[in-house]
């Protein structure tokens, strides 16, 4: 037996094949030559947070569900008055931390946008449903960071900040979803039904915008609009779309 170049169990294609979506697995007849030429372990890590669409979107697979996930960067979102330096400031990464000391966590994209002084906060995003996994319930989240708590809604920690109104619909559907959420602080007392933000493992915050079921049998667009009153010092990374946990 030749042991000069052993392959450990952790590097085995058989092991890593189980973590990959069906279109990349060894059993799939649609697997391309490019993918099959790679070790499955290498292929798995290549599918983690890949930048696509000229660096304005991030794509990866949720594990172990093997479902497709995306994050739409701030540059790819509609942001009202985004070019106004009075209301919004765009910062490149890592300049935001190195030059301006904002303390922003690691970011998937090359830049972020900061809400500086705004009386009307409006952000919109959209994604083509054909990009997503079929027969899957998805939840979307606004991913953001508050780099300073010296803001009007933090003066009294018992005071509620302005509610955030979310409108959520698909182009070919007559039924839209409206819901009210909050950005101001984490809430830990019981089931909040997604109305309050949560701290992520990567240091960012996320607020749940809504959920929808993607049948995958039609080419549609999911659209999201986020509106609220005065907000300051919120750093927006993007909108994330990922499968609902069972």
UniProtKB/TrEMBL annotation:
Domain of life: Eukaryota
Pfam name, any one: PP2
InterPro entries recorded: PP2-like (IPR025886)
Protein name: Uncharacterized protein
């Amino acid at each position: 037996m030749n042991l000069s170049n052993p392959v450990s169990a952790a590097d085995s294609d058989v092991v890593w094949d189980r973590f990959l979506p069906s279109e990349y697995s060894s059993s799939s007849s649609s697997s391309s030559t490019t993918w099959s030429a790679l070790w499955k372990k290498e292929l798995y890590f290549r599918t983690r947070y890949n930048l696509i669409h000229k660096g304005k979107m991030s794509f990866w697979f949720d594990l172990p569900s093997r479902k497709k996930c995306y994050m739409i960067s701030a540059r790819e979102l509609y942001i009202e008055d985004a070019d106004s330096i009075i209301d919004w400031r765009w910062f490149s990464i890592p300049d935001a931390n190195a030059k301006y000391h904002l303390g922003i966590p690691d970011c998937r994209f090359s830049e972020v946008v900061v809400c500086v002084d705004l009386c009307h906060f409006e952000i919109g995003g959209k994604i083509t449903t054909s990009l997503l996994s079929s027969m899957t319930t998805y939840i979307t989240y606004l991913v953001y960071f508050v780099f300073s708590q010296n803001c009007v809604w933090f003066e009294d920690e018992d005071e509620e900040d302005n509610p955030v109104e979310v409108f959520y619909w698909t182009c070919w559907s007559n039924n839209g979803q409206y819901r009210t959420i909050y950005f101001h602080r984490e809430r830990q007392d019981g089931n909040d039904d997604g109305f309050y933000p949560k701290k992520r493992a990567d240091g960012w915050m996320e607020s749940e915008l809504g959920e929808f079921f993607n049948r995958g049998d039609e080419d549609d667009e999911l659209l999201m609009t986020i509106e609220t009153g005065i907000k300051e010092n919120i750093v927006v990374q993007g909108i994330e779309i990922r499968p609902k946990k069972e």
